Amino acid sequence: MLKTICYISDAARPLDYNIKDNIYLKAKSNNTINNITGVLVYKNSNFLQVLEGEEEVVDSVYKKISSDPRHDNLFKVINTNIDERIFEDYNFGFTIINEKADLKNLYEYLEWLKLGHNKIANEVIGMVENFIEN
């Protein structure tokens, strides 16, 4: 069964470029290996991540994240089973948002997804849009 988790958190300390780059590379690698799709956004010392995949795998990945000392105030915003992945067709599965151009592309993809009128997808879209716009 497929599942999605969307969480937000504060960075435990300000991230310099090398640390942030390391987090991105590790997330991309681990999520690709685990067939996790989704998106990771770091903005204003906060993270937002959407994880999609097999239920056991998503739960396991989230458990590891919840014990990661680089996160403070981790809050699971969405935790539900899904019929299909939202980000499977976006930028080859799992995406790191690191530049303004990436944000623009993500926003355009989210606008396109809204046309599908999927309730869960629209909840996730709303969370991501709110995070990137504020």
UniProtKB/TrEMBL annotation:
<feature type="domain" description="BLUF">
    <location>
        <begin position="2"/>
        <end position="93"/>
    </location>
</feature>
<dbReference type="InterPro" id="IPR007024">
    <property type="entry name" value="BLUF_domain"/>
</dbReference>
<dbReference type="Pfam" id="PF04940">
    <property type="entry name" value="BLUF"/>
</dbReference>
<dbReference type="InterPro" id="IPR036046">
    <property type="entry name" value="Acylphosphatase-like_dom_sf"/>
</dbReference>
<protein>
    <submittedName>
        <fullName>BLUF domain-containing protein</fullName>
    </submittedName>
</protein>
<dbReference type="GO" id="GO:0009882">
    <property type="term" value="F:blue light photoreceptor activity"/>
</dbReference>
<dbReference type="GO" id="GO:0071949">
    <property type="term" value="F:FAD binding"/>
</dbReference>
